[in-house]
Write a structure and sequence with these properties.
95 residues; 12% strand
């Protein structure tokens, strides 16, 4: 999967109030469908319990991460993994 990642960069202007940084990157494939992020305006990130959020994401993401380790992913597989991660993040944030 790493072969698809291009143009990654740290977003110096976006703050996270932690020691983590926001990273932007492009996933390059022959065909790509843009999936709009549903996270930006919906959540007050200053009030988030980041420790709880990270712990829950880590526990729930193991199955998806194991799928993503496969180096022979098709475009459909990659799309499904991205959608699964997006749904997991949104569901965890809504708790």
């Amino acid at each position: 999967m790493i072969v698809f990642v291009r143009n990654w960069q740290i977003d110096e202007e976006m703050t996270t109030d932690s020691d983590h940084e926001v990273i932007h990157f492009t996933i390059s494939t022959k065909e790509a469908e843009i999936i709009e992020s549903s996270l930006n305006p919906l959540y007050n990130t200053f009030k988030a319990d980041w420790t709880k959020f990270a712990k829950e994401l880590q526990q729930k993401s193991e199955k998806i991460l194991n799928l993503a380790k496969n180096s022979n992913l098709s475009l459909k597989d990659l799309k499904n993994i991205v959608i699964s991660f997006r749904n997991l993040i949104v569901d965890t944030a809504n708790q």
